[in-house]
Design goal:
With 304 residues, the chain is of the alpha/beta class. The chain has a single domain, classed as Metal-dependent hydrolases (TIM Barrel), CATH 3.20.20. The chain is 43% helix and 12% strand.
Length: 304
């Protein structure tokens, strides 16, 4: 069942009134009790691929994660993937990468049944990043990596990072964007990611933001079957999810919010309001991420 206009407005308005912009309550309603949410969707599991410790107040990682979890509970989001700490920078040095990963692991230690972590690494420092992958993923609690800017992912210097993640069965989230004003130095596009993915066809990779300009981003990675798109961030534009499902298949589309830069409501609306079958929505909201993380969770003996 699709969300009608009244349900959509109730969902978005509820988050603006009591989510990221307003005061929060310690008493949270069960998902099916939240006014304005389609019960058939609210009862389904939601896993959020794309969360940050920035964009909310708090002196510690635990304080910030607790605030985001309260908003997540309001929207029925069961599990959250966090990466990058605070404050962040465009081209972090190795010490900064370690500091931010330590912040995320602090939050993971408090809510291991709710949170996953991806190690923040940089193609600018491949050797240090490999050490950080071993520290945080191979020998630590994290289950994937996040690559942002600093070096385009089409550069072969990234290859050892991707290969190591493949060995560990770790998820790979690569930020991509297509800016009309020009990308940041070292900022990857979906076209760069397609080049990388063709060099590592057996390694699953996520195209973060679907390049921002999603009509071009979807087409750019369409032929690289090992690439899924993360739909988090950006405006909840009509047609985004429909095109992704039509061109890639529902099994290659993954929900994420980009909270605290974006609200859960605006990003969930992309899926709730999409004119696609209900089974496809279930895959996008949780099933695809669950499948992607299952190999490394099995390796680590994670049952929750």
């Amino acid at each position: 069942m699709n969300v009608n206009r009244r349900h959509f407005c109730g969902l978005a308005g509820g988050c603006l009134a009591g989510g990221l912009l307003g005061e929060t309550s310690s008493t949270l309603a069960e998902p099916a009790q939240r006014e304005g949410v389609d019960d058939s969707i609210a009862k389904d599991v939601i896993w959020d691929l794309h969360c940050h410790l920035s964009g909310v107040s708090g002196d510690t990682a635990e304080e910030r994660a607790a605030q985001i979890l309260e908003y997540a509970d309001r929207m029925g989001v069961a599990r959250l993937v966090f990466f990058m700490g605070f404050p962040w920078s465009y081209n972090p040095k190795p010490d900064d990468l370690r500091r931010q990963n330590d912040q995320v692991m602090q939050a993971l230690s408090k809510w291991p049944d709710r949170l996953f972590g991806f190690a923040y690494v940089s193609g600018e420092y491949p050797d240090d990043s490999l050490r950080e992958i071993d520290r945080c993923v191979a020998d630590g609690p994290m289950v994937g990596i996040k690559l942002w800017v600093a070096r385009k992912c089409s550069d072969r210097a990234i290859d050892p990072i991707i290969a190591r993640c493949g060995e560990l069965k770790a998820a790979i989230f690569q930020h991509t964007w297509l800016k009309i004003t020009g990308n940041l130095p070292g900022e990857s596009t979906p076209m760069d990611l397609a080049v990388l993915a063709r060099r590592h066809p057996s390694v699953p990779i996520i195209c973060g933001h679907t390049g921002g300009d999603w009509t071009r981003g979807i087409r750019a990675i369409r032929a690289t079957e090992n690439v899924s798109v993360g739909i988090g961030g950006g405006e909840p534009e009509a047609g985004f999810v429909e095109m992704a499902v039509r061109e890639l298949g529902a099994h290659r589309v993954i929900y994420g919010s980009d909270v605290g830069g974006r609200s859960f409501a605006s990003q969930l609306a992309k899926v709730y309001g999409a004119e696609i079958p209900q089974p496809a929505k279930k895959l996008i909201l949780a099933g695809n991420l669950q499948r992607m993380l299952q190999p490394i969770r099995t390796e680590k003996g994670l049952k929750s």
